[in-house]
């Protein structure tokens, strides 16, 4: 859908979101979030800031106590756009419940009205992207933690969503699996998939987001802006109980255009300069 000016409608548009835990503790407090079509956005905040809860509200997995969420410029019913919207929570077990990995990957497409053979094509394609080919006939509980994480992501991708919401997608993942997942997210973004990533890890943000919604410890929006603007504001991050990226701390005050990653620092200054 498009807006009144003919531009693509936001993938997700939320306003006035509030949610409290059963004991009354606020988790999300008056949050407004708009995610543009094809945009990459990080929900960044310290542990306990309500990031996971907010992500699940945006993905239609939790009903807010107040506020609204609209999808693709139209419905407020996440289930009505479930074939366009995938949410990956932290626990792979939420997605791996069939006897084999292949059946888990095929579960989402089986709920869609697809031509014969299309579900199998999607399973094979995504399995190849995430190097799961040799694991397809295995029971999910026999996979390693990193393999389970990749299989859960694959199950979210076989519906070929327009928007993908991920909660700490590389948490507790080894370097090889982390690189595989981040490379795939880059490819998805290049294809126009909207990405929303929840994380407390400032080091991850430059790899997954062009814009940041920064949450404070009380579940409120402390700031929102381009990734560079947020990650180089050392005082702001510190006030939100976050540690700025290591490279930012290293170059803070020493360079006008502070690099956000080690790779960017090497490209700019060379190995001898860092």
TrEMBL record:
Its membrane topology is listed as: Peripheral membrane protein
UniProt-listed SMART domains:
AAA (SM00382)
**What family does the database annotate?**
Belongs to the ABC transporter superfamily.
Compartments annotated for it: namely: Cell membrane
Protein name, entry field:
Energy-coupling factor ABC transporter ATP-binding protein
What keywords appear on the UniProt entry? ATP-binding, Membrane, Nucleotide-binding, Transport
- Transmembrane ranges, per UniProt, are none
Q: Which superkingdom is the protein from?
A: Archaea
The protein's GO terms of the molecular function aspect are: ATP binding
Q: Name one GO cellular component term.
A: plasma membrane
Stated role: Probably part of an ABC transporter complex. Responsible for energy coupling to the transport system.
